[in-house]
Structures are given as structure tokens and as C-alpha cells.
Amino acid sequence: MYNGNKNIHQFKAGIYSRYKQEWKDVGERRIFARSKWEHYYAIYLDSLRKQGQILDWEHETKEFWFDKIKRGVRSYKPDFLVLHKNGEEEWIEVKGYMDAKSATKIKRMGIYFPNVKLRIVDATWFKANNTALKILVSAYENKKI
Question: What is the CATH class of 24-141?
């Protein structure tokens, strides 16, 4: 549901979403975070960029079209593009819940774009990095990094 403020969209994206989707400043960028995990992953990528571990990152910059598909899921826009120091591109999808539509998009990416590297960052990654991520996000939000 749109609340009248064009900079903040507050609506339920599905039964699993309790996050207020909104514009967030991350480094020199302004992203529309669709989940808390997406926002936190952007902070993580920005810290990697500042440390020189990656060249850069982008948020929702490209939409991949599945030209032969006439019905259903016809396109897919991954959450992040990571530009590695060796010139490699890696697309990242942050997923809290894998619904049927998301699974179809990811499956079609493999079929239509087999040479595109796509990595899913899900609860397993967030659980494994929970402590370090909490410290990073806290420092970031307190402008210490």
C-alpha cells in the first residue's frame, strides 16, 4: 500500500515480508531495499569495495529477458552485480524465501544465460555471517566506517 510519500513504499511483498521497503543510502549510492537482508548485503558489498576486495558493486542494474517465453516469468532482475578485481562479473540474488516464481526465474537464467554467474545468498549465508554482519551494520549505521 502506498502511503503518500514517494520516497518510502510500505507494503507487504508477500506473506513472508515484514520489512518496510524503502530507499537507503549505502556509501555514495541510494538503493531501494526490498528486504533487510538486501540492505545489509549492500552494506557488506560496500565494505568490500572500500577494503579493495572488489572493484565495485551495483544494485538492480540489469534486467535479463527470456525472449522465447510468452507467458509467466519473462524477465529477471538480480539484486546485485559484483565487479571483481580480475574483471569477472558475478550476479547476486538475496533470497529470504524461495517461492515458485523466484525459482522459475533462477532456473530460466541458467537456461537462457548459462555463462552468467549467479549466486544465491540465503539464510545459510546470513546465519554463517550473523555476528560479523551485526558488527559491520552497527558500525556503518553509526558512521564509524
Answer: alpha beta
- Over its length of 145 residues, how does the chain's per-residue pLDDT go in tens digits? 333 334 433 334 444 456 689 999 999 999 999 999 999 999 999 999 999 999 999 999 999 999 999 999 999 999 999 999 999 999 999 999 899 999 999 999 999 999 999 999 999 999 999 999 999 999 998 886 6
C-alpha dihedral (92, 61, 8, 13), degrees to nearest 10 = -50
Helices first, then strands: H and E counts in the chain: 4, 8
73 in Cβ contact with 105 (< 8 Å): yes
Judge residue 131's burial from the number of C-beta atoms within 10 Å of its C-beta, 0-12 exposed, 13-18 middle, 19 or more buried.
exposed
The model's pTM is 0.85
Domain map of the chain by residue range? 24-141
Which amino acid is located at 88 in the chain?
Answer: E
34 by DSSP, 3-state: which? coil
Q: Which helix (H) or strand (E) holds 127?
A: helix 123-128
Task: Quickly list H helices, 15-78.
Answer: 36-50
Cell of 30: 541510494
